[in-house]
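During the second half of the funding period, the structural biology subgroup turned its attention to how the target accommodates small molecules. The most pressing case was NAP, which had performed well in the primary screen but for which no bound structure existed. We therefore specified the complex as follows and requested a full 3D prediction, including the ligand pose.
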Amino acid sequence: MTTALVTGANKGIGLEIVKQLVDRGLTVYLGARDPERGAKAAADAGARFVQLDVTDPASIARAAADLDRLDVLVNNAGITGGRMNAPGDADPASIREVFDTNVFGAIAVTEALLPLLRASEHGRIVNVSSTVGSLSGMVAGTTPTSLGYVPSKTALNAVTLLYAKSEPGLKVNAACPGYCATDLNAHAGHRTPAQGAAVAVTLATIDDDGPTGGFFDDEGPIAW
Ligand code: NAP
């Protein structure tokens, strides 16, 4: 593997994924929607900046056209929607916004880059998901009752499985970084973004005999 693209990578876990892939010797494209913050983060991380808003088809098309090869795609961009969207107090417009980024954004970016990934001898896709998307966790009642963020990660897990089944030449896995201190949760997480990045980096650079269609955190497989 020599070339990677990470979406939503100007800060937080995505930026740490970029840095760790750069440390492993990859050429890394740091995707960010804001050109100023993205270019600065890329320069600091030793990466190449590519403007990429995962909800904007024109931006996705331009980014894809900028690349002539790609081995690793990390769909990391994600939002919570800024409100809980608990059952009984849910705003469909806010939920739609969350799905636009966390689910449809990941699909749109993946579709645009599939031709390059298929052309790679070691194509990898990592979708940055969350244990909160685990249906098993919902059955057990251990999951926050948010109708936006939580089902968006369940859907992203399903998307991961379906790409894994339909792209046997690639390794397609979902990663949960754990609860990390980032802007996403007002820095309430107990792990560092660097710790959270590690599982995605492992899956992004996994050997040809490694798993596909799995859902992992640092400890190993997570129940769907
Ligand atoms: P973060 O610090 O808020 O970073 C989110 C990144 O996504 C930012 O760079 C943001 O860009 C970008 N983004 C949002 N919408 C975008 C769009 N439309 N196009 C391109 N980029 C966009 O959050 P984080 O904690 O690092 O989250 C990274 C991933 O980890 C997310 O998928 C999240 O769901 C997942 N995750 C996080 C935790 C945790 O505890 N932090 C736990 C489980 C899973 P801007 O700066 O422009 O807004």
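Two results from this model are relevant to the next phase. The first helix runs from residue 12 to 23. Residues 7-8, 10-14, 32-34, 52-55, 76-79, 101, 105, 128, 130, 176-177, 179-180, 182-185, 189 surround NAP (CB under 6 Å).
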